[in-house]
Specification:
Number of strands: 0
Largest sheet: none
Helix content: 55-70%
Shape: elongated
Number of domains: 2
Radius of gyration: 20 Å
Distance between the termini: 68 Å
CATH topology of the largest domain: Cyclin A, domain 1
CATH class of the largest domain: Mainly Alpha
CATH architecture of the largest domain: Orthogonal Bundle
Number of helices: 10
Order of helices and strands: HHHHHHHHHH
Amino acid sequence: TWNERFRTRDSKERNLKQALGEIDRMASALGLPDNVRETASVIYRRALDENLLPGRSIEGVSTSALYAAARQANVPRSLDEVARVCRVEKEEFKRAYRYIVKELNLAIEPADPTEYLPRFASELDASDETERKAAELIEVASEENLLSGKSPVGIAAASLYAGSLLTSEGLTQSEVGEVADISEVTIRNRYKDLLEAAGIMGPDAAVESAGA
């Protein structure tokens, strides 16, 4: 009936309003630009129009839409970063993300560690030279097929730490880990692999930074 159609439309509009509010709130907290918010809104509208919401929370799908939009715009945020600002458990939004990517056939390329470098370098106030060295280390490691199955966030952080050793800028594992939200152990495990792949140190050598 007309009343039922009206109620359905009204419900969808309330749903959309709540979701767009969530997307705006999280995008602000994550420092994401307007174009990412707009893309996330389009993704959410598509999910709503294609009836993908039943069985999933508005918060879970809106978080997934924003995470996907950031990946598409090459300004990704890590799962942990997103989990800190969203209102659902990380596992719930990961499930929702996999579902909407599959159902909406979203084109999402695997995350590239170099996409995290500008933001991390900026937050660390690292030099352009250190950032360039980090990108070069990632490129070599990629050519050697050393990145498969490894967290792009961990690789980005380790490359900046290693790059700072090469430029004598001397970032510490602690400060890099804090900015990237990963453990110092992860950085220690990864940076030596990166330097070794570039032929800068042997497998048993150790390069340490003062205060690391």
